[in-house]
Amino acid sequence: MPKGSNAPVPTTALRVELGWRSGPGVPDADASALLLVGGKVRSDADFVFYNQSEHTSGAVRYEGKQNAGGRVTDSLLVDLARVEPAIETVILAASADGGSFGQVPDLYIEVKDAAQGTVVARFDSTGATVETAFVLGEFYRRQGAWKFRAVGQGYGSGLGGLATDYGITVDEPQQTAPAPTPSVAPPVPAMPPVPPPVPQASPVSLSKVTLTKASPSVSLTKQGGTSGAMRVNLNWQVRKQFSGWASKLGRPVAMHNDLDLDLCALYELADGRKGVIQSLGNAYGALHQPPYIHLDGDDRTGAVASGENLTINLDHKQAFRRILIFVTIYEGARSFADLHATVTLTPQHGAPVDFSLDECTVPSTVCALALITNTGDDLIVQREARYLVPDRGVSPQRTVDYAYGWGMNWTPGRK
């Protein structure tokens, strides 16, 4: 589509993909959406992005990044049938993290039917220079129907400037004013007491941490994320029809619709107790008593829903020695090949931490995702992203135990 043109779109669930070509010196980019009435948001809740991943109406959800073959995509799921009647426009934006869009090659936005995968509209953005944010497109109502418009409006003030223009209150670092020089002032008459200020909603924080091979770890303590509940989310997409190895010869096997990935955690407490959190054997854990880790449930859909989630109670951080987050394939595939996953750790306080998994090139059924270590005065998150290949007759759980020296005894289990 050329800039400024429009096209009708169905009022079904649509997947909006922001995509570009990765490479050395290419900054990261993030997709976001703003739901507008009269050109402005009604409140900060009408902003959907990596730190606020779902609109209260359920009409827009941030799905996260996938990286495959040198191409990166960041996705939003938009269900136009669920957009509230008052909303007139859904803005679809992109922001650069660590550079400008002049350094981002082959930037595009693509709208697909989420169920069928067919392309409904596509706009390739060209000619960017110093812009750090773009409104690439928008959905808008016209005579009871929805249309998509290719916009291509650039901003030099990043995501914060773009969001502020549409009425979002952004939490940004404030400059500290210099202390005034002491002086003797004449007495002034007493003033009546000032009434307390009216409570205001907390501003939106745009902070985040992305772990990479070059920068694989982060201190939760320095990020202010050492209390409250920390949510760990695993989300995935299947890129191809075939995946896995039927044998060491590398023959592909069909990927079944009942693909089931299990998010799990090995834990070691400060008092020496060890265990596993997993849906296998209904070992869901507990949030308010040892081990202070709880698996929310067993999701068999991945990118179609909210993925797999577990919660860690950081109010009891002194009880932890180390926690290893890992994922296994329970059924539906024989390898992680073509399963492109994103891991996000969202502390109740502090910036979220995310990373993507590299492509799997070995017949692996278990992947170590992240290791959280209590050093005594700090909590460190280490990106592992390590695919492991179990020996014949050895379970994925036992394989990850051996790799990290957990030293537990294992027995067969079932869901």
From TrEMBL:
Highest taxon, organism lineage: Bacteria
The protein's name in its UniProt record: TerD family protein
Family: Belongs to the CAPAB/TerDEXZ family.
Organism expressing this protein natively: Streptomyces lanatus
InterPro entries attached to this UniProt entry: Stress/Tellurium_Resist, Tellurite_resistance_TerA, TerD
Ranges of residues in domain TerD: 3-166
